[in-house]
Structures are given as structure tokens and as C-alpha cells.
């Protein structure tokens, strides 16, 4: 509901005491408000209309009372005094809301084209019992994962490395635990998440497919809050600890229990991730066996908040995520036993410092510096061939950023700034038999200035944001501009027309040298753009061209929203240039090619969402897209389907919330991904498979049904608890998510297929203090 509409109901109505209004809301929505008596003493507000949702009612009371209403969970809401400058920002934010409770509670669609997720207010989605950020966004139209992982999220046809993931403003290079099945970001310490598929704000660089901006709480409220919980994969805890009136510490930690307890969920995850890897092949070998295998992961976050004064704030950020896999390979030969240990570790750590100054009620600046480090290491022993292979991929990313915001009134907002980034990426390969070692390191520095202006009409019907970035890469002597546009116009009260557009670029990407690199489990490695035009040989290692990837996208959408009923349709066209064939995961005739090309995708996303008060929400979404590659050196330069070309995708789901119970059931279907089959009319000469035209066929359609349920209850007055249960792939559908072909000992073509997760149950229990 817009600001103008909320204000319109206040005309000629006699005000009521705030206590009376809160009591009526408690009875109507089965919630409980927590507040200090002096906070609401003597406050009054205009009476609320009966057709308002809970979220709309809270937004109205924020405007009326200048108080902050924070939703803790589905039952408890805290009330605090808002800081002086907050009232201005809250008004602006409320005006931007198009749809509250988009799909489920805690998800909001804004009129700048972005989606906002608040994990603390999150309702429930099918298959999820916890607000996993990277799983949640896959419920949005145009977002899916071709292999069911959070480390391979495809947004409008792009690859995962084309998504920019920010944790409190710091770029992340690792997104998942358990090699992609679990998000690496603790949802219980995340305040909100902003997702952009197009029309990105000018302050964001990188990420030609999407922006996923995760933000932790940034205000000191002098209240202790903590929680602990576990499920069949991991246990975690978090705490928000006031240190003084000016200081606060936020902590979280999570660790897997998989090396302590062997659960059904872990067995299913292991079967999915380790299939077709060196680890699995060793177990199936007749000559050797694997034993004493162990796997675990953990993550730790810390944020220190200190308010120097009412105008000056300092924030310190720390993040560390780690995965470790060990297994022994033992060979018995001539009564002699030999055992060697293979290992894979993956880590992303970061530290940052942010300083914010509010010069006055209109102008503020934020300066941030950070360093983030990603390290992927593998040591692989092949006992049968007496070979040891060491591989390492390491990224160092340092950045300094100055952001300025000027808000003269609620209609205009001007934002601009400067960002400097230095990225160094190294790749190591070391083989002992035969002796071979290659170490390559590239460093790239980028300067960018950006500016944009936002306009919001008095009646909140028109929203325009226009700006751009100017990027300079001294090493390549490159200077290029990236315009950004977001326009939204409401008409006939319930309709909204939207146009979004952007130019974007990125200098980092992931490639696959060999499918069995890094034990075949995490085979993608980060590389840096080198702007080369041809292959070069350095230290006996071929250096292939890696251009700066550039994209341009435009979309137009029409939305209808009335009485909890939403119809939304958005058409788009996007083109990305400078992509490498090595980043696309080919396993056909192009597996070992090194070509530079582009992809172009045209599509439409449609969603119908009906909400019945705050109890039932149902939706069905449909996405159609046509995504084609063009490589001058491949397929005679003719376009052919992208590896992520999923023409049709349908999602149907419903959620039910009543008092402390939440239920969800959903179905996901999409057409099969492209596949290249061997040419039946050709013989396999010289141990080489002859293929048909690239991606000229498709795998079978994908179908998955999920369900989940949670129940919240009070243990004591200050301790709340919740239990949850979910089943992923209820029908145990055997979905083939990838198929490739090899030659057996008789020179016959043999298909190798990878299956998705089978039926996977999970349960959770949480306490909140």
C-alpha cells in the first residue's frame, strides 16, 4: 500500500489510543507486541481499516507514531522509538512497496524492480524449514538451478559466476556448503536481502546476471537476542550482544554434524554430490577401496557496531566459511598394503571496515574497505598409477569504496561514489609423475565512479531511477560506461507498468579445465580477464583469452494487484558478450575447445499470486525463454541452444499459516536441459566419439514435489521454540540432471547419467531467547 493511500484514510477520523489499537491487532492477527510502557505512553493514532493486512497496518502505525515495529517471528513484534533520521527513510521505503507478502510473508516486491527478503519475517516455502537465502530466491520466476545447488544458480540464462553475491557489502566467491547443497550464509543473522535481476542500482559493479545483496542488522538497539538450533545436517547458534549504549557485537557460528552422526539426509546429500567423482570411483574400484572418509563444514561471522556519536558510526565485519573432505585410498598388492590420503578444502574468508557519517538530515557518506580471500585446494593420489596431483585456486580481492547520498526531500534522492578494486587470482597445478608444475597469477585493478538520481512523485505513482557507472581498467587501457534505468508508473489504481534496463560488466569468471579437476567435486576455478586475443604459452602452460564480459538487458512488465490478487508479466531480452566456452561446462565435442562467444536470451516471466488474508497464499508461475550461444569458431558460427536453455518452467505452490502452524506444498516442473547425443550414423574412429549437432536434443523433463511444516510455541515467557519438518522430492522422482558419454573397453559408447536428490527428509528444532 502506498504512502498516499495510507494517509488518505486519516482524514476526518477520531484518533484512538495506541494501546487500544495494538490490542485489537493482537486479537485480529494472533500476535503479541513487546514494548516499554514509556515508549507508547499517551500516543494516539487514527483507527485502522478492517481490510488492512498486518504488514500494512504496521506500516501505517509507523507513519502515524514514528515508532519502529520489528517483526521477530510469526507471533512476536517489538516496538521501539525510531531515530530522528529513520522517519524520512521509512517513508521513502514504504512508498516503494508494490506487493507485500509476495509468495509468502517476508518477501516484498519494490517498484524499482527489485525483490526484498527479510529472513526474520519469513513465512514458509515448500521443501524449506529454514529461511535459506539462496534456496528462497529460486522460488522467484526466472531463477532456477539446473542441478539443484546454490552454487549453480541460473538467473535468466546466466551461469552462477555471473551473480554478484555481497555479504554486508563484501564480495563473496563461495556461496555454498556441502559443495552447493546448503547456503554458506547464516539466515538468522541476515536482516534483509535485496535481489536485482535487471535495472540494477549504479552503485553495484560486477554480476551481469543478478545482484544478491545480503545485509546484517546495522542499528544498535541495546537489546540482547540469541538463538540456537539444529537439523539433520548442522547445528548453529547466534547472539546479538549489547556491550554499551554505543556498542554491540553480533556473532554466529554453524558446524556440520555429518562427521559425528550419519543421518538419512546426509546419506542423500552424499549420494548426490559425490556421484561420478574421484571419491565415488575409488569406492567402486576393484583394486582399491576408500575408507576413513570424513567430511565437515563450518562458518563463522562477526560484526562489531560502534556509534562514535549521533552522526558517526563504525562497523567491523568478519566472515569465514570452510569445507573439508578427506578420504584414504588403500591398495593391497602381493600382501603389501599401501594407503594414501586425498583431500579437498574450500574456504572463503573476509574482513571489512565501514565508516558512516550523517552530516545532516539530508546528506550522508559511507566509506568501506575490505579484503576477501577464496582458496580451493585439492591433493589427489592415484595409487594405481603412482601419481599425486596438487591443484589450487586462490583469489585475493581488495576494495575501497566511498558512497554519498543526498536526500533533499521524499521525492528526490541522489546517490554517487567511487570504487577501487584490486583482484589477484592464482592457479597452481603440480604433478609428480611425470614431473610438471604450473603456477600462474594475474592481477587487475579497476576504478569506477557512479551516480544516479531517483524521483518519486507526490502520489507515489511514478518512480524513476536513472544513473550509470564509468569504469576504467588501466592495464587494458579500457574506459567504458554502463547506464542503468528503472521506471515504474502506476495507473488505474491497481495497474503498474515497469521498464528496466542496464549495461553491466565483470572481470572475474569461473572455468572448467577438466571435468575431474579438484577430485571432480568442485571442478570450477576462478580466473581473471586478461584481454588477450590469442593463446600464449607461459611456463609450459597455455594461457587462453579471457575477455571482460559485458552484457546489456532491457525488460518491460505489467503488474495488476488488488485485494491480495497479483498478476504479473515481464518480458526481457539480454545479451552477454565475451563468454568463454570453458566456463559453460561442455561435455560434448566442445569439451576441450577454447572459444570466445556470446549468448542471447529472450523470455517472459508470468506469476499469479492469490492471498487469502494472512492465512493462505497460493501461486503459479511460468517462465518461457529461448537462450542461444553464438561462437564464431563453433558450429560454423551458427547459433545453438545454451547449456542452460530451459524453455519452459512451471512452479505451483500453496502455503497455510494459522496461529503457530505453517504448512507448504509445492510442485516444480521444467523441460529438460539440452543434451548432445552421439551420432548413430558415425563410427567411433580413433577412440573419439562422433557427436550429433550440439545441444540438438534434451533430457527428460524435470519434476519435483516438496512439502514442509513448522510449529512455534513458548517454553517460558522469554524463551520461544519452533520445530520443523520437510521432505524434498516427496514422490522420489528420478530426475536426470546431466548425461554425458564415454567409450568403454570395447570402444562402445556408454552414457553416464547424474541423478538429482531423491526423497530427502529433514527436521529442525530451534530456541530463541
TrEMBL record:
Matching InterPro entries, A to Z? Beta-barrel_TonB_sf (IPR036942), FecR_C (IPR032508), Plug_dom (IPR012910), Plug_dom_sf (IPR037066), Secretin/TonB_short_N (IPR011662)
Mention any Pfam family matching this sequence: FecR_C
Outline the extent of the Secretin/TonB short N-terminal domain: 31-82
In the UniProt record, does the keyword Zinc occur? no
Has keyword Transport? yes
Question: Where does it localize?
Answer: Cell outer membrane
Q: Which UniProt keywords apply?
A: Cell outer membrane, Membrane, Transport
Q: Which domain of life does this protein belong to?
A: Bacteria
Q: What is this protein called?
A: Carboxypeptidase-like regulatory domain-containing protein
